[in-house]
Amino acid sequence: MDYIVLDIEFNGRKFASDLPMEVIEIGAVRLNAALQPIDEFTAFIKPVYFPKLNSFIQKKTGIPQESINSAAGFPKVIREFLAWLGKSEQPVLVTWGGEDLKRIVLDTRMHKMDDAYWLAIPYYDLLKGYIRVKGLTNDVSVEAALTELGLSSDGSAHRALDDARMTADIFRSIYGQLDFSYTQYYKDLYTNAKERRLVKNAIRLLRSQKLEPTWESFAQHVLKDKVKLDDPRKEAEMKSYFQAELDKQASKPLPEKKPVKAKATLPSEPNASEDHTSAQDIPSDANNEITDSEKL
Fold first, then answer.
1. Which of 160, 182, 204 marks a domain boundary?
2. Which of 109, 138, 265, 288 has its CB surrounded by the most CB atoms within 10 Å?
3. In the predicted model, is pLDDT for residue 173 greater than 60?
4. Per-residue pLDDT, 225
């Protein structure tokens, strides 16, 4: 069995648009069963939309515009990548987060190509694995993980092949501590991380106040004007996530509240009022969530 450590770069944009973001670079490292690198793949891709890289992407990745101009389109490059992947029997993809595989699936569908391979190949989210190993509560970058592990970070961050090589270094370093029961398959999601963070933090706050939210009250008082639930698939997914998070947090003991010293008041003054913070006060850009992947 080989491990394929995958990284992609895509042409993000600074403004809102209905046009899709697309993969502009693929980098991958093939590791054998002994975790030794035995092969690499790298290619630029010329996108259909926004073929001219904006200044932010150019600065972030360092990808020359000339390399994008002369690159082949997604269908040709992805066929070459699939042929390269085909050299491995029973490969497992290793990614830093779930965005890389998602972008490949979305571009495959955009070009009306068969996505069966990407839905059938198992992948392991090393970012979540690293977080579990280190007992962290927030996402971290590849560069931060390398520093924490005392590993060198040779190469350029935000270049696909260099990032894949650095991710492979992390994978080898903590391989023996990883729980591979969290290996999973791609699954379409209709909610985003920001919306799921809102659910998680709202439930946490309500439990700290010894309140048990219902889905109906949660949707009415927390999600209203913050999250649109006009797609029934999204509503069903968020409701399922709400219940799963409620069950998960219910299994944990409530944090003990520190005693608060009463303030002296004059006879004519009312008692100090209680804190009336509610779930509606939770900022939607709260800390990144940690969501365990669906186990095989």
1. 182
2. 288
3. yes
4. 83
The Cα–Cα gap between 199 and 27 comes to: 34
Counted domains in the chain = 2
Q: Structural domain of residue 45, as residue ranges?
A: 3-182
Return the structure tokens found at 194. 């920001």
User: Is 168 buried (19+), middle (13-18) or exposed (0-12) by CB count in 10 A?
Assistant: buried
Q: Is the pLDDT of residue 135 over 90?
A: yes
> Quick check: is 264 in a domain?
no
Residues 129 and 176 both lie in one domain: yes
Judge if 238 and 91 occupy the same domain.
no
Q: Are residues 35 and 169 in the same domain?
A: yes
The span from the CA of 67 to the CA of 62, in Å, is 11
Give the chain's mean pLDDT: 85
Question: Is 267 a domain residue?
Answer: no
Last residue of a domain, one of 182, 210, 239: 182
* E strand residue ranges, the chain: 3-10, 23-31, 37-44, 92-95, 123-125
DSSP assignments along 103-160, one per residue: HHHHHHHHTT---HHHHHS-EEEHHHHHHHHHT-SS---HHHHHHHHT----S-TT-H
Confidence of residue 281 (pLDDT cuts 50, 70, 90): very low
Residue 56's pLDDT is what? 87
Query: Could you tell me the pTM of the whole model?
Result: 0.76
Q: In a 10 Å sphere around its CB, with 0-12 CB exposed, 13-18 middle and 19+ buried, how is residue 197 labelled? A: buried
Sheet holding 92-95, edge to edge: 37-44, 23-31, 3-10, 92-95, 123-125
164 and 137 co-located in one domain? yes
In a domain, 21, yes or no: yes
CA distance 176 to 233: 38
Residue type for 97, please?
A: G
Distances (CA, A) of 118 to 49, 75, 95, 122, 214: 23, 14, 13, 8, 37
